[in-house]
Amino acid sequence: ASLDELQKTVEETFGPVRPPPPGFVANGIIDQINAGVLKLPDEEGSHARDENNDFVFQTEHSTYAPNVAFGPEQLGLVREVVPLVESRTLKIFSLVPPSDDPVLGESRPFRVLSHLVGHESPGSLHHLLTEEGWINSLASGTGISTSDFSLSNIAITLTSKGMKERDQVLAKTWQWFALIKDAVMNDPHGVIEQYHKELKTLTDISFKYREMGDPTDFCSAAAERLFDYEPEKILLGSAETGDYDVEVAQAFLARMTPSNSLVVITGPEAEMEATEELDVSARGAEWETEER
Fold first, then answer.
1. What is the distance between the alpha carbons of residues 248 and 107, in angstroms, rounded to a whole number?
2. Three-state SS for 193?
3. CA–CA distance from 9 to each of 19, 77, 182, 231 (Å)?
């Protein structure tokens, strides 16, 4: 099709779409910063805090407040599921601020956390659980990211032995989190900052020497980045990482607690003690919820 034909198609398809009302601000980070809805940290590096001196992530619950997707009733729970197809997994979903929050987007503490949780070297959580014969795999990252919140996700594939010891697997995982949090809280510029600098260096090298990809995929990704990056930064995009910010890291890791998380355990051995509380999902799988 010619350019004129493509333009005609676009006009016929999207012509009826009305412009937004006066004062409307899109959800894109750049639009919100330009409109003064969001503010970047000042040059001194100080961050906003509320009346209780708690750290404020500006985008958290900013779109749909006072409604929240995950409140106290949905967190601090362990849900055991009996699947239709045999599988054994343990997943931890922790409620954290949106990953593209201006403060998080600068230092990206979730990248270091994901690296440390998913690392497979001797002495790591993965190594410990594998040596016990409890897991087949372990992965960490951001499971869901929206304009109001994100869910930090740890996905563990259990063995039959690991399914029987799922409480131990869960306990060891929280202990590993505690070690990381202790390093951040009590040694502000110690080993965690060293890991951050190491990842930053590796990211810079990866960007500098990355291979050429598909042009169509690149254009699509670049267009999407315009919501969150200035035009001169769309090439670098999410590859750019700022300096380590211990205050942001501490505030982020403070959210990684059992009471602020949802644990989902899937396996044919899942216990169904309270049969009156059983329900059946749309796919026919049975599930039970327990507070811990």
1. 8
2. helix
3. 19, 50, 58, 27
Could you tell me the two tokens for 11? 């006009």
Per-residue pLDDT for 277 more than 60? no
Q: What is the mean pLDDT of residues 154-159?
A: 96
Closest to 89 (Cα-Cα) out of 199, 202, 166, 189: 166
Which residues 6+ apart lie within 8 Å of 129 measured at CB?
A: 135, 138, 156, 162, 169, 172
Structure tokens at 218: 């690149």
Burial class (CB in 10 A: 0-12, 13-18, 19+), 209: exposed
Specify the long-range contacts of residues 64-70, CB closer than 8 Å, at least 24 apart: 64/148, 65/148, 68/148, 68/149, 69/146, 69/148, 69/149, 70/95, 70/149, 70/151, 70/262
Tokens 């003690």, residue located: 273
Quick check: helix, strand or coil at residue 227?
coil
Q: Which runs of E-coded beta strand occur in the chain?
A: 77-82, 89-96, 135-145, 150-158, 261-266, 279-280, 286-291
Q: Are 163 and 136 in contact (CB under 8 A)?
A: no
Q: What pLDDT, on the 0 to 100 scale, is given for residue 279?
A: 43
* 3-state secondary structure (DSSP) of residue 39: coil
Alpha carbon distance 223, 191 (integer Å): 37
